[in-house]
Amino acid sequence: MGRSQETFSKKEVRIKKEKKRKAKAEKRAKKVTDNKKSSFEDMIAYVDEFGMITATPPDPTKKTVVVAENIELKITKNDPASAPDFVRKGVITFFNDSKGFGFIRDLASNQSIFVHANNLLEPVKENNVVVFEIGKGPKGPSALKVKLFKE
């Protein structure tokens, strides 16, 4: 009774499902009849001296022996003399008091560095020589702890 009212598209879907089911059953039966089992040796891969993956095992004649006592382990200590100088020297190229920002030209690298009024320790003007530290700002390097350079 149910199949007499079946539409064409429903019939097509049912036929496709039956074909899939039959194909799956055939694959299962074929796998059982072949009975080909993969061994562990078929799954092993080796890495040669160049770092490439191969199916052949490495040649035992090319094996090198490493003596554990000959391996040197060191911890390098930071030398305070080689530490980078965080305090930089520069010239104020532009500073706007009303807006509260400006730029410093670093004398060592000629890099233009942004400075904000909140990072000033002393009031500054254009062409003043200042000492500062470089920090990370929201849009790039920013000068911190800016004060006038006194010889």
Write the layout of secondary structure elements.
Layout: H1 8-34, H2 40-43, E1 46-47, E2 53-54, E3 87-96, E4 101-106, E5 112-116, E6 129-137, E7 140-148
Parallel strand pairs: 5-7
Antiparallel strand pairs: 1-2, 3-4, 3-6, 4-5, 6-7
Gist of the model:
The protein is α+β, with helices and mostly antiparallel strands and 151 residues long. Helices cover 21% and strands 28% of the residues.
- Roughly how many Å apart are the termini? 106 Å
**CATH level-1 class of the domain at 85-148:** Mainly Beta
Share of helical residues:
10-25%
Looking at the structure, the CATH topology of the domain at 85-148 is OB fold (Dihydrolipoamide Acetyltransferase, E2P)
Q: Please count the helical segments.
A: 2
> From the helix content, strand content and strand pairing, which structural class follows?
alpha+beta
CATH architecture of the domain at 85-148: Beta Barrel
Strand content: 25-35%
Report on this model:
The protein is 21% helix and 28% strand. It is of the alpha+beta class and 151 residues long. It has a domain of 64 residues: Nucleic acid-binding proteins (OB fold (Dihydrolipoamide Acetyltransferase, E2P)). The strands form two sheets. A five-stranded mixed barrel has the order 3-4-5-7-6. Strands 1-2 form a two-stranded antiparallel sheet. It is elongated and about 95 Å long.
Defining key terms:
151 residues; alpha+beta; OB fold (Dihydrolipoamide Acetyltransferase, E2P); five-stranded mixed barrel; two-stranded antiparallel sheet; elongated
